[in-house]
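Problem 3 from the worked examples.
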Amino acid sequence: MLKLSRILDKNCIKLDMSAVRKRDAISELLEVLKDSGKIDNTEPLLNDICEREKSASTGIGYGIAIPHKIVDGLEKTIIAFGRKKEGINFDSIDGKPATLFFLILGKEGSTGSHLRLLSKLARLLHDPDFRESLYSAQSAEDIINAFAGEDDE
């Protein structure tokens, strides 16, 4: 069973993002992954993800953005979570700014599990109470615990 709480790493959670633009938000989350030792080079990923965003925004509405990419050379799927309470224009489908960000980098050859992960995340984030728990979390542990509570259901 897919457990998001096991994929999330407390070192890849940033509750006070400084970005004010979409590209900056993606860059900041890539830096979080780099600083935690999950990836080495952010620039090619940043360019690829931003190029994809031009064709279809991953701002899914409800204040949520889920930029994602399958990446050659990863050992496993990794996620960076970020929050920007003031919100960032992410060209979301509902026109509202994004406040909760999930940058997902999937392992090459894992398209099926990547899609299942995106589906599960979207399903969880559809719940306003769950979104509120992420929005009001005080620590990285609170974020992981919110997912762990859902994983157990």
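Problem 4, a separate protein:
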Amino acid sequence: MNQKQENTKLLPAQSKDVMMLTAFSKWAFETDAKVGGAENSGPPGYKSAQYYSRMNRAKYLYSFFSDGIIIGGAVLIPNGKPKGSEVEIARIFLNPEHFKKGYGIKLMQAAEALFPEAKTFVLDTPIWNVRTNSFYQKLGYTEYKRNAEFVFYRKDREN
């Protein structure tokens, strides 16, 4: 692990971050075309500054930093009863220049650490996306259901 990976932080996004996070999301999700996804496709709002502005106003948008520079982001939504007992990892993304360097793992670890009260983390990813399915499984997420398009994962925190 290189030194830069040790200096990572996941912090609530600021409105000045929205345009950069939107660009990183667009670039990241459009790389899915290289692993079986349709060209120029991604989750709803993946390239929309309006979507990310809305997530920021709701306090669900986070900026991921390495050595003080934004390299990615996440949309994290606390749910459940009591509120926050379950966290939906609605989206994570990195500037593709930082793919395959361990930052995705650091981003997920930081997302989980932000919610110490959470008992469960949930997310979904397209069935066809071998890259993300294996990534989430590697991090201890287990499939709990699927439909024609998506695999749904969860990770229960041991207490």
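Solution to problem 4. Residues 3-156 form a domain with the Aminopeptidase fold (CATH 3.40.630.30). Helices lie at 3-6, 18-30, 49-57, 103-113, 130-138.
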